[in-house]
Specification:
Its main location: membrane. This protein has helices at 12-24, 27-39, 43-68, 73-80, 84-116, 121-140, 147-170, 188-195, 216-246, 248-253, 258-267, 269-303, 320-336, 339-361, 370-394, 396-428. It is mainly alpha-helical. The protein has one domain: Up-down Bundle (Amino acid/polyamine transporter I), CATH 1.20.1740. The model has no long low-confidence stretch (mean pLDDT 86).
């Protein structure tokens, strides 16, 4: 168990901004059109349902991070309860989730930037490749996360989203929520929640930086919980306001750039420019943060012999092999993948991860507060089943590929790591 580091550089304003930014950084830009297509006028409720799971999971993450007093997130939590094998498998699944998430963000970056100057689908792909190449290069050079820049991007991003939601509410017209589409039943909201859960995953990246937080025992829980609740309100408000501006059909038909469409519909070119800038900065920052955290997680897991030694290699303390491999995989998926499939696949992985963290946290949450973890476990399980049934119907091939990879990870990883371990023993001899 690590030592509590109270001399970190991140105070509560930075922790709040980074937690909120980790979620909003790419989530709403990619998720709104997807959830409106599924839930229609109940899209706001989908974000609330997902948010409840995220809030309970955030509570569990904080309880465990403060208990173990070290960075590492779900991998560390499992390792500390002597579940190294499960920790290794989960870390592989998590890395797959981060690759999918970066692919979603790169996809969104390319489409928002291209849309602003009427670019073709090829231009969108080139923009996605360009931002991934640039951020891979920056990470390889050791130029990664500047907290002041990140906080500035988060602040501007939140201002743009709040402004869009407020303008939407000023143009109140509930007919727009179903314009051009068939109204959805209320029970479509859990289906929508399942489809876009990855929009909330970003807060847990902060648990990888536990050692950098000033007095985490005191500030981590209230700060992250406030950030999650704030983001739930932002998502629900934007889900109503943006659709009221552009109409449901426009949001769905141009789901790759739904917020720019909404801003342009009421403010014209200035709205398009503002929302495009917010989107490209937010998604780029989210890619950078996720690439940095996931590559360092790869090295940490490899150091514990739960990933091949390939991931241990560093140059000037930069895990360059992990950065290159994860970055290339994300780039390929951003170019060839479909937005809905990428979002839903990532959502499934994070639902599983957060469920496991909630289960672990039951050991350490004080009596009388365990209901919070149970809430996340129960709602998360229902939403996960809904998502599986949905993918079986609308994307059986993608689901089959994902389940096959998960099967390989769970069953094939121990054999693979045993092989690397035996090779290492022979080399040592």
């Amino acid at each position: 168990m690590g030592k509590n580091n109270s001399s970190g550089s991140l105070g509560w304003p930075a922790v709040w901004a980074l937690a909120a930014g980790g979620m909003v950084g790419g989530g709403i830009y990619t998720a709104l059109g997807v959830v409106v297509a599924v839930s229609g006028q109940w899209a706001w409720l989908s974000f609330v349902i997902s948010g409840i799971i995220a809030a309970s999971s955030a509570y569990s993450y904080v309880v465990l991070a403060n208990h173990y007093k070290e960075s590492g997130g779900a991998f560390t939590f499992l390792r500390e309860i002597n579940k190294e094998g499960i920790a290794g498998s989960l870390s592989w699944l998590l890395l797959m989730g981060y690759v999918l998430t970066m692919a979603v963000y790169a996809f969104a970056f390319g489409h928002y930037l291209s849309f602003s100057f009427n670019g073709s689908p090829m231009i969108s792909r080139l923009c996605a490749v360009g931002i991934m190449a640039a951020l891979i290069s920056l990470n390889l050079a050791g130029v990664t996360k500047t907290k002041k820049v990140e906080i500035a991007i988060v602040s501007l991003n939140l201002i743009a989203l709040i402004g869009l939601a407020v303008i939407g509410f000023l143009h109140w017209d509930t007919v727009k929520l179903v314009s051009g589409i068939e109204p959805r039943a209320w029970w479509s909201a859990p289906i929508g929640a399942a489809s876009i859960f990855m929009a909330y995953e970003g807060f847990q990246l902060l648990t990888y930086e536990y050692d950098e937080i000033k007095n985490p025992k005191k500030i981590l829980k209230p700060t992250i919980m406030l950030a999650v609740f704030f983001v739930i309100l932002i998502y629900a408000a934007v889900a109503i306001g943006a659709v009221m501006l552009a109409g449901a059909l426009a949001i769905i038909s141009q789901k790759q750039v739904s917020l720019s469409v909404a801003a342009q519909s009421v403010l014209g070119t200035p709205g398009l420019v503002i929302m495009t800038l917010a989107a490209v900065f937010a998604t780029a920052a989210a890619i950078n943060s996720t690439l940095f955290s996931s590559s360092n997680l790869s090295k940490r897991v490899a150091d514990d012999n739960e990933l091949p030694p390939f991931f241990k290699k560093t140059h000037n303390n930069v895990p360059y092999r992990a950065i290159i491999l994860l970055g290339i995989m994300s780039t390929v998926l951003a170019v060839i993948g479909k937005l809905s499939s990428l979002v839903e696949a990532a959502s499934m992985i994070f639902l599983i991860t957060f469920g496991i963290v909630n289960i672990i946290a039951l050991r350490y949450i004080k009596k009388g507060w365990k209901w919070i973890a149970w809430l996340g476990i129960s709602i998360g399980a229902v939403v996960l089943i809904v998502l599986l049934l949905r993918l079986m119907t609308v994307a059986p091939i993608q689901l089959g590929i994902l389940l096959f990879l998960a099967f390989l990870i769970i069953l094939g990883r121990p054999a693979l790591m045993k092989r690397f371990s035996s090779k290492k023993s022979k080399n040592d001899n």
